[in-house]
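Q: Entry one of two.
A:
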Amino acid sequence: IQKKGVEQQAPSLLYKERNLAVRSIRDYFTPETDEILIDDQSVYRDIKTFMGVISPKQVKIVKHFKSDKPIFSKYQLEDQIASIFENRVQLKSGGSIVLNPTEALVAIDVNSGKSTRKESIEETAFQTNMEAAEEIARQLRLRDLGGLIVIDFIDMREQKHRIQIQNAMKTFLKDDKARNKVGIISKFGLMEMSRQRISASIESGSYVKCPHCKGKGLTPSVETLSLSVLRKLRLATMKANDTNVTVTVPMNVSSYLLNRKRSEIQNLEMRLDIRIAIEGDPEMIPGDSKIVCDE
């Protein structure tokens, strides 16, 4: 790159990142890979050439997928991709893990659910935690989750079981290309670990914040929004000496105000000798409002 920068005249391309398919092979290919299927002829040639450079002995595992049925449909890849964005992942034993990324950390909760395959509660908790540890390590790689991670395992009384889960977690993370550190399980059943942030999480690259809840996952109730509008209305009418006030709000809020808060609006009109008009706007999102005062 430095040599090109000196010798070539501007504008000139000094470096170009490889295409997505080649980058995927570069980042995720391991000697344990048995087969690479590609349904595009040009990408197939690129991958075959690239494999000839990095691992000539395994060029034969690169195969061109020629079936009439789409490759994603044949191997149920659509369902697997969709599952990456679910916050709950089911375990074969009947338990589940719940992943909740936040600003500060990634919280992971392990639930036993219907997992009762062992006679004792302790043994059931241990087996479910062991299965969850393997799945958590896999999900961290699939979702590109990094930073501080706190795992709430099912409580285990025996110290030997906690140590086995800690060692298993380190083993399952051994092949992860991102640097990680695993702590011990505390007396509360919590394990702290950190994982290197290689890139933005797959969720942040595939989704945008909801304009209604701003990423919170909850929106205020109609009653809460209506009370907020009434407070803003009282404040606006106190400051202004106008006689006509138009309040524009979402449709459900306007309906609530006109039906459930009509008496309060009428009292405000009589007390201040003004006229208040409530209008609904179907384009407005929850939390939006507009108050216009004029003579």
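Q: Entry two of two.
A:
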Amino acid sequence: MANIREIQSRINSVKDTMKITNAMYMISSSKLTQARKKLADTEPYFYALQGEISRILRHMPELHHSYFNQREEIPAEERKIGSIVITADKGLAGAYNHNIVKLEEEILAKPGQHKLFIVGELGRHYFAKRDVEIDTNFKYTVQRPTMHRARDISGVILEQFRNRELDEVYVVYTRMENSVQAEAEVMKLLPLERSDFGEMKMPLNMYREEIELNPSPMAVMNSIVPSYINGMIYGCLVEAYASEHNARMMAMKSATDSAQELIKELSILYNRARQAAITQEITEVCSGARAQQKKS
């Protein structure tokens, strides 16, 4: 059995670690609340954009736009596939990063010419060791997601899609279901699918509002769609940021609970060792007293 001083040293060490994990839990909790508020404040605007695109497509089903072009003439082996992979900048978040990497590995296993746009240091370090093209100029952190950063990312993606440097674009991120559950998922960003805009089937006798698109329907779509893509990327960044801190909160709570259990076990060992030491001292005192009595 370890001596009292060693056990006391281990208890103090675990208590110091527990202070760190508890502090990290509180910090992640605060950042999570801020991230969710940001998303709630901006969501109505981008939902309105989605509604306007749906409205335009409903009134003009014959409209063909480049952002909706599926480029089906390109065979699967020659399709240029881009992936925006959103990981964390650091660990201590359970399986958060592992789940994202696993999903992207599944995409890379499919036929096509793959190119990665990685947000987050951990993902960048991991995929740098793989034989896959990575946009080296695409260096963004996941901390404090902003609309400006989302606009920069969407600008790069949209330019390469228009120039046919990319035929498909996916976002691999973590979506927060609720306070205790988050799911890593793959979302197709480009080309857009008409089915995603919820085409409404209306009765023939129902009034349909008239719309006027100036200067032209194509010009309106050219203005709305980039803003919509920007909003989708911003939403993914904020969702991933919130999910990361939610995962870190759960990991730190688990670590704090484990530290408390370990302190309990060490306290029992400490009390036993202390009791054994006291018993030993009493035994030695009694033995010494008896020895003195025999001499006298």
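A: Comment on entry two: The longest helix spans residues 217-295. The chain has two domains: 2-19+251-288, 20-249.
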